[in-house]
Amino acid sequence: MAIGPIQIIVFGFDRTDQFKGEVLEELARLRSRGMIRVIDVFLAAKNAAGELSQVEMTWLQEQEKVEFGAVVSKLIQAGGAPAAPGRGPN
Questions:
Q1: Alpha-carbon distance 75 to 88, whole Å?
Q2: pTM given for the model
Q3: Considering Cα of 3, then 81, then 11, then 51, what sign does the dihedral take?
């Protein structure tokens, strides 16, 4: 199985009260056209009371989870400072 290239993308939103599923629909559309391969999706939201809700989705088989997990773990450990908004990687 080919593993790379891999990009880890993190999105943050100030408000989520107006979301209607457009982000997930677009990811599914791009995935169905073969334009991207989504390894894993993790969604987390905090309500006004500070309570956290979360959902994780994956389309990987167990062996793929092990293989991708090892690669992603190394990418995260490689670290580096996050890029400032509107700027490329450091």
A1: 17
A2: 0.56
A3: positive
Q: Which domain holds residue 61?
A: 22-78
Q: Give the alpha-carbon dihedral of 44, 22, 10, 13, to 10 degrees.
A: -70
Q: What is the pLDDT of residues 19-68, one digit of tens each?
A: 788 888 898 899 899 888 887 888 888 888 989 999 888 878 888 888 88
Number of domains making up the chain: 1
Name the residue among 6, 1, 2 with its Cα closest to residue 78.
6
Burial class, 72, CB count within 10 angstroms (exposed 0-12 / middle 13-18 / buried 19+): middle
Which residues neighbour 75 within 8 Å (Cβ) at sequence distance 6 or greater? Answer: 6, 8
